[in-house]
Amino acid sequence: MNASAKIAAPIIDISGGRKSFGAVDALTNINLSIRDGEILTLLGPSGCGKTTLMRLIAGFESLSAGSLKIDGKDVANLPPEQRPVNMVFQRYALFPHLDVFENVAFGLKVKGVEKSEIKQRVSAMLKIVQLEALSGRYIHELSGGQCQRVALARALVNRPRVLLLDEPLAALDLKIRQHMLVEMKRIHAETGATFIYVTHDQDEAMILSDRVVLMERGRIVQVDRPEDMYARPQNLFAAKFLGETNIFEGTLVDKDTVETASGQRFKSALDIKANKGERVFASIRPELFSFQASAQGASQSAAVTICDVTFIGSRSFYEVAFNDGTRARLQVQRNGRSPLPAISENAQVFWEAENVVVLPSA
Ligand SMILES: Nc1ncnc2c1ncn2[C@@H]1O[C@H](COP(=O)(O)OP(=O)(O)OP(=O)(O)O)[C@@H](O)[C@H]1O
Ligand SMILES: [Mg+2]
């Protein structure tokens, strides 16, 4: 194998994966290649199969059909402790009768690692999660964020190639969660491990991930970099799940133009996976509308009435009605230079064909 082939080789490769629990198909047709060293986030509504996918990778469950390879080897018959994988659970379980050091050292002790090496590895790991000063504390003497870092250290001290993190921040409040996200990125960079991260929270997914796997009812909907998934959702579910958007239902009247029932047209400059005459949806993000024409003069525009305005710091949200009755939500930046329209005024809104995503109805 040459060097470039080695870089391209996935650390985990799932092909045609299915998992059923009795009559319930928790996962169907899972095809996923996970790159060595990336942070991959599994994102999707409750019950879509995120934890099940993690447990399959960890070896706590086995596939009903399909194959799962880790580092090129089929792991169907490999028990969890023989996989180069560690999992941090949705509800982490630390040992209350052990202090921080002993909690982190536990796995190494069980493996029979030499005492001096345990001391050296645990100390190094406590340094990474910035808990050296608290190594003698008991678990009940720690904050939620500190407990979470002990759980991380306990998994990472085994030097797994892959770390599975199932909603590790769910129990923490917003402030600590944001702090822990930064920590997580730093720890990822310092260890070089592959992180597979589960969250309900789309902001968390966007901040953390190299790539996002969007799931719905046991299937993978889209795998993409967060910014690409946001800009180019592949279907209606993806468009609505990640961020806010305006959806305009209509017919593809030309190869590139959606027309609503009441006659409003949206032209798209993007790839469209539908044929002329089909029912489709045009999706435009609130921040991609404007009250000014673009400098290139390539904008589409429509006359609207302002129905509602909400000010949030430097941004304003506008609820507008097109003349045909179509409603839309706009997010505009207030810069003080150009005056913005007020409630019940008439205005002109502009948008660009590059920002109109046309989605098939199925
Ligand atoms: N051991 C099991 N026996 C039967 N059904 C199960 C079992 N484990 C999971 N399921 C079902 O499989 C589906 C996927 O569950 P899973 O726990 O993977 O979802 P999830 O995406 O992690 O959800 P959440 O975000 O709520 O944690 C659900 O319908 C769930 O009820
Ligand atoms: Mg879960």
Task: Tell me about this structure.
- The protein is of the alpha+beta class and 362 residues long.
- The protein has two domains: 3-231, P-loop containing nucleotide triphosphate hydrolases (Rossmann fold, 3-Layer(aba) Sandwich), CATH 3.40.50; 244-360, Beta Barrel (OB fold (Dihydrolipoamide Acetyltransferase, E2P)), CATH 2.40.50.140.
- Helices cover 25% and strands 34% of the residues.
- The protein has nine helices and 19 strands.
- The chain has helices at residues 3-8, 50-58, 100-110, 115-128, 144-156, 174-191, 202-208, 226-231, 236-241, and strands at 10-21, 24-35, 39-43, 65-70, 73-74, 85-88, 162-166, 194-199, 211-216, 219-224, 246-254, 257-260, 265-267, 279-284, 300-312, 315-322, 327-333, 346-351, 357-360.
- The strands form four sheets. It has a six-stranded mixed sheet with strand order 6-7-8-3-9-10, with helices on both faces. Strands 13-12-11-14-19 form a five-stranded antiparallel sheet, with no helix packed on it. A four-stranded antiparallel sheet has the order 2-1-4-5, with helices on one face.
- Adenosine-5'-triphosphate binds next to strand 2 and helix 2.
